[in-house]
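Quick start: load a record and inspect it. Here is EAL domain-containing protein:
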Amino acid sequence: MAQGYRIGVIAPYLDGEYYGRLLPHIHEAVKERNSELFAIQVADDELGVVALEEPVSFDLVDAWILILPSASAAFLEMLANGEKPFVCIGFPSPYPRGGSVLVSNRESMKEAVLHLIDHGHRGIAFIGHTQQYDLHERYNGYLDALAERGIEADERLAVRAADNLLESGKRAAERLLATGVPFSAVAAGTDLNALGAIDYLNSRGYSVPDDFAVIGYDDIHQAGLNYPPLTTVGQPFREMGRKAVSKAFDLIAGRKPEAAETFVPAGLVVRKSCGCEESRSLASKEGLDFHMNNLSKMRIALHNVTVNNYKMTQGLIVATKDEKIHISKLFWSVFHWGCLALWEEDGKGGRRLVVRQTFSKRGDRVPPAGLEVPLERFPPVEYLPPGAGPGGEEFVVLHPVRSELQNWGYIALVGPLDPMDDFVANDLSRHSFTILAVALERELLFKQVSSMAEKLEIVSRTTNDGIWDWDLTTDKIEWTIRAHHMMSGATERLLDTPQAFVDLVHPDDQLRLRLEFMRPFQKDRPIQVELRFRTTDGQHLWLFLAGDILYDESGMPIRIIGSITDVTEKKTNEERITQLAYQDALTGLPNRLRFKDQLRQAMAERDLDGGRLAVLMIDLDRFKIVNDTLGHQSGDCLLQRAAHMLRDCVGEDDIIARLGGDEFIVLLKRIEGVGDVSSVTKKMLDALAQPFILEGQSFHLSASIGASLYPTECAEAEANPDTLIRDADLAMYHTKENGGNRFEIYEPALSSKRVERFNMENGLRYAQERGELTLHFQPQISLSTGKVYGAETLLRWNAPGGETIQPGEFIPLAEETGLIVPIGQWVLEQACAECKRWIRAGMPQLVISVNISALQFEQDDFPDLVRRVLERTGIEPYNLCLEITEHTAVQNMEHSVKMLHQLIDIGVKIAIDDFGIGQSSLLWLKKLPAHIVKIDPAFILNMIEDSDDDAIAKAVIVMSHNLGLSVTAEGVETEQQLQRLQQLQCDRIQGFYTGRPMTSDQFIAYFLEIHSWASS
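Running the structure step on this input writes:
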């Protein structure tokens, strides 16, 4: 026989005439197997808790017994997915791994209803809480009996009770009589429902069983003691408990039961309420003794309730004398050992269960306070009293401690079974759990109040505020020393009369002060007002006055207590902040806020005089090059000089403001027409075209300028400052897209282009997941061997509707919006995957080249991303070449050198793309760790006709070779270009002459064809 196991019982309650009669038989069967019992009571009527939600004791318990659905769905799922066997009593297991012990509810109720039919009843009603499994089965038994005797069921006679208790039986009987449907007997789902129905029928003048026969189910103690004694069905508690334990031990031992569900028969107990002539239970001396014994136990139980109520009240008085309540002072009936563990924060955003209180009435060991215990291993079994050990007479009770405020933790108690628990529900003992939770809540609130009081005490000693107290009954004001000191610079000193204080206030603020104190006072509205006071040196002292009103019991105001704070410095700072809020700190020009105010005022003036105005949006072209090359300090200097020049180009009444970065905006308050705008913008472009000398270098600036006019036929019907600024911005943006260094006036068509851009951006965000992005590959040919060296990856977007959007249209948009980062990662992964496919097709030495955007290159974890892609796709690092533009490489040399070294350490190749079109020197190549230089197609296009382009291509090739770099020429379209590049000893070429961009399958076919030709 298995020994030494720990059986856990989960039940809503552990006492009363169902749970209290079932638990002793479970405990008895566990003891016989030299094992231990852990019982977890989960129901809390006050909070509406009905199921166990947390895995308390989960690691300690070897098998679980669930009495009725007392565990949450999450806990049941954890049992189903774990290794711990479990057995359900009173409901079928929701999972195949669990077993069930069920009462033959359907058959036994059928037998009871047939008994009523045999008495001659045909109008038989049913009342019960049919949402519960076993009650639903009893209802089915009721229907089975009617069907077997050919009686048609009337749905009006089936009344759903709210629960299984007495009051619900009364309400159900009331509704049953209200239907007006004739009936002569009632079958109730529980005894308490039946007894409640009898009480209601008696209160309405009916007799049981003369007018109505009534039967119940459960055979609780009150059933036999009621008048008339209740005919019922006896619950086989002993068989249920012992079979559940037996099934649990079979599952622990790995023995598979013959059936997942075990049914225990229940027998009819016939008494007088069904109409039988005499109570069979009293027909013998043994039956009479049984009932007299039950009466005696009931009397003792009621007496104990009275005594326990007194004990509990006394314990509560003692426990609440101190600030903290101790669990040893609460009423725990027969329990002699206890341990309370509370949830506490662990400092890492989680929580831990920590022992905080313990007691032992017999001097047994208790866990030390502060001991941290995992929930799954609570309570700490090494400290449990010997009586709760294997085969012991005692058991462990676990109960969650909750209140409306929070889930506090768990309490564990040890003691023997109370023999009275099967007669009445020990509500007093349950109250201790509620009192404990409320006490913990009180302690927390007390700590918060104490902490707040301490803080207020410190504040009152250290604050710089003055305190005042106005007694409304005497009309006198008391001021603290700090208040007098604060007002020492005023023209008069503080006095105790309200009028004297008003006289000190600046005349312009006195009305505001009087309004703040105007009667009747408004409750829940504190007094708050800022006031100026005259000082002896002719300045102003600003004070913030705050206060609140106190009322007597009749609701009359009696005092106003408050504070005064010197806010002079704050007001001075506010004035300074207001100034800064309307001024650009770098250039001294007005900012956007100030500009909009001026524009709004100018629009109103033009509305009155019928004149016109213009708004110019100015964006400096290529300003970013200055910042990237010389740094932000030089860039700021350039912005200041540009602001000065632009200011000189407009009239004295016109406004120029800086919006931020390199953007300026101008308001021409009065214009005659477009000619005035053209004249001003020409001055601006000419001024900016003059060379700027910064750090010994000469820079030439240009600007993109957009203009909007007001009023104009093209303007919106209800133009406002925002629409004028927006329209000017659209015109400027269109100017920049067309090369810049010019100006353009807004037209409605530009808004349509903005919408198109928005639609393109929105479509691009979903292009990847919709499979609209594809890759093409342009071959790269070695000039020395004529073989395929590799291919450059080119991205294509096949938009919905069959439209192909060129990279030149969507790549800049992707870079501007940041979408280039996820798109670039997808391109890298797909390109490497295709390369792996080529290798498997017999092309192992090919190099796949992938362009990397500036945003990708700026990410510090980019090398890690490359490593992960290589690992996932399975290609070697030497099969991959990463191409970065010359501009990206020189933007931040320190970052570029660091990043390129990390990538080279991985083993991939690095190519500098578009070389020659930037402002960098060939000597910069010495600083950049790279393998390949790619000559920009602009120099290849005219190299045959243009000697300068030919010289540049030659210089790049020679210098690159001297630095140990290979060279690839892009954009080769003619045989003459190919031959000239061979003469210049260029290493590789790519372009339409040797192969247009193609799909992966086409590239494989292309390679095989070239390979066959080169090998022949």
